[in-house]
């Protein structure tokens, strides 16, 4: 396996986290060259059992979040494990943890208890609600946070029930926010020589995802609702039936709408005062959608999307996960990673020209110290 030469080469990360937000943060740091040592309890991270599918008794869920890490098993509730992890903290630049608030403090190895001993240490705490406030120290789970922060209320068909987004978007964004916080703290440490606490919570991350609904509410006072696949502010920005695969049209301005209508052979829609401007099209969307679908009914969805993109109209076929992961552009962008032992996973979405991401350790690599 090639050694790291990424942007974070030389940075040592002690990953004490489990489940999703923290492990994703650690994996991203590892992809970009950090030496990541993950500490798991003797029974392992709970997500090892989150399946099927499984490979060698370990779930795909776990394997998707723990690349570019080496493993050590410690029982942090016991004195021996606590002393071992303190020794690792002494070598680390960054700690990532997502224990329930107060757990590490109970064990005597929390941030406030070690910060003076390790003044350069950057501590990334991923929690449900933060440490204080009305909900402080409560445990947090992605779906519950989606419900509580309003995300479910705007997801689903108009007139239908609120729906959870079909992937753990809050957990993942929280992990990405953790990465941002760690990078900010590393940059500031170059000036001050000091570490600091990076506090990221699922609740804050959920609230932060509410654009444009929050902005709409701040300005109008109207509670946003569900609009299915349609954008609340602009139209046609929605999925449309064709003769084959549905397409998503993302028409953001008058020029794109004109090009769309000309390509579909319905230029009269451009002259219709109901659809003359972006605001009018949004207001009269219920009238516009069936007219467009009538013009689309003889089209092949993927071919139409390619033709529209070629003339500057944003459009895409609505693909399944299998088709998306096998798409030639997915492979060209190296968004599917293959490693020894049959590992396949998602690639790093951030491309750096001189210090690209690298994939050095498949999940479950052994190691009891930093390299």
TrEMBL record:
Q: Which keywords annotate this record?
A: Transferase
What InterPro entries does its record include? CoA-transferase_III_domain, CoA-Trfase_fam_III, CoA-Trfase_III_dom3_sf, CoA-Trfase_III_dom_1_sf
Q: Which GO terms describe its molecular function?
A: CoA-transferase activity
List the Pfam families. Answer: CoA_transf_3
State the Gene3D superfamilies in the record: Crotonobetainyl-coa:carnitine coa-transferase, domain 1, formyl-coa transferase, domain 3
PANTHER family linked:
SUCCINATE--HYDROXYMETHYLGLUTARATE COA-TRANSFERASE
Q: What is this protein called?
A: L-carnitine dehydratase/bile acid-inducible protein F
Q: What is the scientific name of the source organism?
A: Delftia acidovorans (strain DSM 14801 / SPH-1)
